[in-house]
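Hi everyone,

Forwarding the result from last night's run.
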Amino acid sequence: MGRKVTVTAQKKGIGLLSSEEKSRSCALCEKEHILSACPQFREATPVRRAEIAKELQQCFACLSASHRARFCPCKVSCGVDGCKQRHHRLLHGSPRVWPEREKKVVGSRKASFATPSMTVG
């Protein structure tokens, strides 16, 4: 029937914020907006935005901190220039997967499966 809403009183006036509104503060600059609306975030390049999202542990699909892209309830694709990938449109243009890390993992797997050839004889 009713959902629980935690309220806090601010010093100046009786401004009450629900926990939902309070959690909408920006993870980057801590002002009262979500990350995707942050001027500092929006001014960054797509590659830098992806780095920021990774550092702040934000979902690459919706830029929320409450989950990762794998578990994101948002099923909307990027849409920039017809992109059908599932990442936030502000991250379009940055590598969706970190290629440097992926290359190292693939390279190390190949190295671990390689066997040295021996000549007998």
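Strands lie at 7-9, 16-18.

Cheers,
N.
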